[in-house]
Amino acid sequence: MYFSKSFIPILKNNPSEAKIKSHQLMLRVGMIKQSSAGIYSWLPLGFKVMKKIEQIVREEQNKIGAQEILMPTIQSSEIWKESGRYEDYGEEMLRIKDRQDREMLYGPTNEELVTDIFRSLIKSYKSLPQLLYHIQWKFRDEIRPRFGIMRCREFYMKDAYSFDITDDEALFSYNKFFLSYLKTFKRLDLTAIPMAADTGPIGGNLSHEFIILAETGESKIFTDKRIFELDSYGTDLNKKSLENLRMKYEEFYSVTDEKFNKEEFESKVSEENRLKTKGIEVGHIFYFGDKYSKPMNASVDLPGGKKDFVKMGSYGIGVSRLVGAIIEAKYDEKNEVMKWPISVAPYDVSIIPMINKNDTAALEKANKINLELLKNNIETIIDDTEENFSSKLKKMNLIGSPYQIIIGKQSDGDLLEFKEIGKETKKINLAEIIRILKEQKAKN
Ligand code: P5A
Predict the structure, then answer these.
(1) Boundaries of domain holding 373
(2) pLDDT tens-digit map of 141-164
(3) Ligand 1 and 255: CB distance under 6 A
């Protein structure tokens, strides 16, 4: 992609309305554009990142045997009346009437709709467990949308739902998601810690929020620092090892403020290991048994001929929020340098030729390099403008490709100036650059 032809409208300065760095950067490099309060359009750079995050989330859902579906954004109020949440959900639900005067709503979440699908199509325990997920827009009429796409009204969520016959089996499903979330966030190069959390309007009595540390986060957390050392969790989907995995995390006191108990915190965590801080909630999982299946009559035939309500859980990841969360974790605001993890970077490499008027040699060289990189599935952006070097570098540092190739006076012959953002520039040939990039991309 030539920068001159891209739709990446970069602003000279930070927009004054943005209070946190992710919001600043996203507006500054034109990743999003607000269309009304808490509602955004996604422009090419932002959309590319979000789609890559979505794909990683999808792959990790598939690995635990979850099956992808797509439910609509608009739902009928009937099913919400059945579950009893139509009134309870309150002002956050955007209620709409169709031309027949039927009460509809823009889905804030899908427990009811998926339970309705399940109850009408699955009749026997033999079909269980079922893990279904979709990745779809949600709407919550937040009283105070803020921080750009971090707390907005329309947002993109992966939501999954599990159906089992016993509590024990249902916890097995819960633990599969627990593992899959750890793996998903790791692939995004984030350290997200599962913390015991309140269940709020979703309900149930078991829940974990997955939180990444950030001063600008809206969740207050109380945790044992040693939990950050847990890093190995394998890929084993065996019941016992998943149970052990969750227990390993639960050994360390780690809660959000609604669950906080001072005495417990101080008795379980030694003073030097106590950490009270803030974080961003990027995922949230719930176990709520028959909270929806009972009032909505979602049951299956059991082996002995009896019937029972299925035991359910739900599992959310804020796909659009993650774009901002990654920026909060990776953007060096002081030096105005963004480095996207290669797994989600909009471009793997920025090619920066130094172009003088009437001298096309550097651009020609850039084009040749570009062709070779594209052949190797390496995504590039070429700054083909005639701006000076420092303003080109500034721009590319904001766009945040993790690698840069600079084609200037120094790059005679085969050797190119190659730089991983934040590290020293190396002089190496193109074959070596391709080898490094392919190796980095393969790690994901
Ligand atoms: C779990 C899946 C649920 O809705 N029902 C289906 C359950 N959980 S949740 O915690 O309420 O939301 C899941 C994740 O969505 C993100 N999120 C938001 N992102 C941006 N703006 C918002 N207003 C917003 N609200 C929730 C969070 O990442 C949350 O963990």
Answers:
(1) 347-442
(2) 999 999 999 999 999 999 999 999
(3) no
